[in-house]
# Entry
Amino acid sequence: MSTEPAMSPTPPTTPAPRAEGRAGGAAPAWRRVAAQGAFEARLVLRNGEQLLVILILPALLLVTLARTSLVEIELAGGTRIDAVVPGILTLAVMSTAFTSQAIATSFDRRNGVLRLLATTPLGRGGLLAGKVLAVLAVEAVQVVLLGGVALALGWSPPASGLAPALLAIGLGTAAFTAFALLLAGVLRAEAVLAVANLVLVLLAVGGGALIPADQLPGALADLAPLLPSGALGVALRGALHDGALPLGATLVLAAWTAALGGAAGRLFRWS
# Structure
């Protein structure tokens, strides 16, 4: 099976220049957050290496896995494209909410951007909210484009599963964004670059993302559903196959979000 290539660091982000109020004071908080989120989303979508990892490779994997038998995937009564799409969406969420965000935030911290932004009207809370908003915006682009490719390949998800699938993506985004901030806040940027890419590859191949957890060999079949990647994969497969969100996977994602978010809140260093 092919795996993801290493992702390079993004240029350091800077405060959005349009966050000033009309009278020369600070803009309302929601405008500052929206401006920062839009700025960071544009930064990701204009970066060629980021686009390669978050859009082009998932699209190529989608077509390859749907049209070839390169990887054996049990279909459980559905079509091959039905079995492939949830895994690709899981990979897309991980690449944006975890790997891309961890690398960008770690280099912002190393370059002093986080410390600088903490002294502006945006503040630390606004900066974090802007990052989450940027992740959601990029994921919306991923879902539309990858979903469009899947529909062209014959994918036909149940309408009742779309809302649960979006909820699963939201839960997965929360867990992986918390993981990204924890990693970016405690390790050196160079270490984050290596670790984030390695974790992405390991979770994609053996963490229940691309291949359903119950089809993994040996102990991985039992371990993967307890990982955030495996839980997100189970949640999306349940939503897009059966039209319902599995309770067990939902609880696993919520537990990871609470644990990783709590750890990030205590251990994150801004400089």
